[in-house]
């Protein structure tokens, strides 16, 4: 079974500093994908970034980048130049091919609550 | 833009009541999902559906059932609500063979 581990329940970071949120995963599938979602206090889940297991380069989306180290089974999220609006819960997730019809489902980690300090 | 809506943002029910949580998506997505979110546990998959009238158990289906009579609507049913089902419930959808899930705003259910 797939598993996602986020070992940082909470982090406090000074505004404008870079921050790294840790995520490790475990799977026996050769083909998989890793996501990061942001959940502000309003509750909606916002897709941030995606990395496929066969992607040669680390994914980047604006201030977000995913530090993918396949041999170490880690997929850390890096936020550059943090802003007050980055304060939220962050979830790492892995896609898994379901048993039937090749459909996908996600397994989520327990999340990291990031607080940006002015 | 994809829109996933949930019938209520907040809901308070009594123990033993039958509870319906509704989710509607407007982008003709084949796959729909129900999760519950609890502090320290992240999101856990309750049920998912990959077609009308089709359903699959997720990781924690006990105490829940689902219904998908129309492609755009996926309902989560608590047959007899219990206090340990107090939680945030999130619905999501995705087109077939795509990986990004689009989430609704969530329903915070309190069972007293």
3D structure, described in words:
Chain A has no helices and twelve strands. Chain A has 118 residues and is mainly beta. Chain A is globular and about 40 Å long. Helices cover 0% and strands 53% of the residues of chain B. The mean pLDDT of chain B is 93. Chains A and B meet through strand 5, strand 10 and strand 11 of A and strand 4, strand 5, strand 9 and strand 10 of B.
Helix count, DSSP H or I runs of 4 or more residues of chain A: 0
The total of beta strands of chain A comes to 12
Termini Cα gap of chain B: 37 Å
**Order of helical and strand elements of chain B:** EEEEEEEEEEE
Broad shape of chain B: globular
Largest sheet of chain A: 6 strands, mixed
Low-confidence stretches of chain B: none
Structural class of chain A: mainly beta
The overall pLDDT of chain B, averaged over residues, is 93
Cα Rg of chain A: 14 Å
Q: By helix and strand content of chain B, what is the structural category?
A: mainly beta
Beta-strand proportion of chain A: over 45%
The biggest chain-chain interface is: A-B, 29 and 30 residues
Estimated helix fraction of chain A: under 10%
Main beta sheet strand tally, sense and closure of chain B: 7 strands, mixed
Provide a quick synopsis of the model.
The complex is a heterodimer of chains A (118) and B (112). By secondary structure, chain A is mainly β.
Key features?
heterodimer; A: mainly beta; 12 strands; 0% helix; globular; B: 112 residues; mainly beta; seven-stranded mixed beta sheet; four-stranded antiparallel beta sheet
Task: Summarize the helices and strands and which ones pair or pack.
The complex is a heterodimer of chains A (118) and B (112).
Chain A: E1 3-5, E2 10-14, E3 19-21, E4 24-26, E5 33-39, E6 46-52, E7 60-61, E8 64-69, E9 74-79, E10 88-97, E11 104-108, E12 112-117
Parallel strand pairs in A: 2-12
Antiparallel strand pairs in A: 1-4, 3-9, 5-6, 5-10, 7-8, 8-9, 10-11, 10-12
Chain B: E1 4-6, E2 10-13, E3 19-25, E4 31-38, E5 42-49, E6 56-57, E7 65-70, E8 73-78, E9 87-94, E10 102-103, E11 107-111
């Amino acid at each position: 079974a797939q598993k996602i581990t986020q070992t940082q329940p909470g982090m406090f970071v000074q505004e404008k500093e870079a921050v790294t949120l840790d995520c490790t995963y475990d799977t026996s599938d050769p083909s998989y994908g890793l996501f990061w979602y942001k959940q502000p206090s309003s509750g909606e889940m916002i897709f941030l970034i995606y990395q496929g297991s066969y992607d040669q380069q680390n994914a980047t989306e604006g201030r977000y980048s995913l530090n993918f180290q396949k041999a170490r089974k880690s997929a850390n999220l890096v936020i550059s130049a943090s802003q007050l609006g980055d304060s939220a819960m962050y979830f790492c997730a892995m896609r898994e091919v379901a048993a039937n019809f090749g459909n996908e489902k996600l397994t989520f980690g327990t999340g990291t609550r990031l607080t940006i300090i002015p | 833009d994809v829109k996933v809506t949930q019938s209520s943002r907040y809901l308070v029910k009594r123990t033993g009541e039958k509870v319906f949580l509704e989710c509607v998506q407007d982008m003709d997505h084949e796959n729909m999902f129900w999760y519950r979110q609890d502090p320290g546990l992240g999101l856990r998959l309750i049920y998912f559906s990959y077609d009308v009238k089709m359903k699959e158990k997720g990781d924690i289906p006990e105490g829940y059932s689902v219904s998908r009579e129309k492609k755009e609507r996926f309902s989560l049913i608590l047959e007899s609500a219990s206090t340990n089902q107090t939680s945030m419930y999130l619905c999501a959808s995705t087109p077939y063979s795509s990986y990004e899930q689009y989430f609704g705003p969530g329903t915070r259910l309190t069972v007293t």
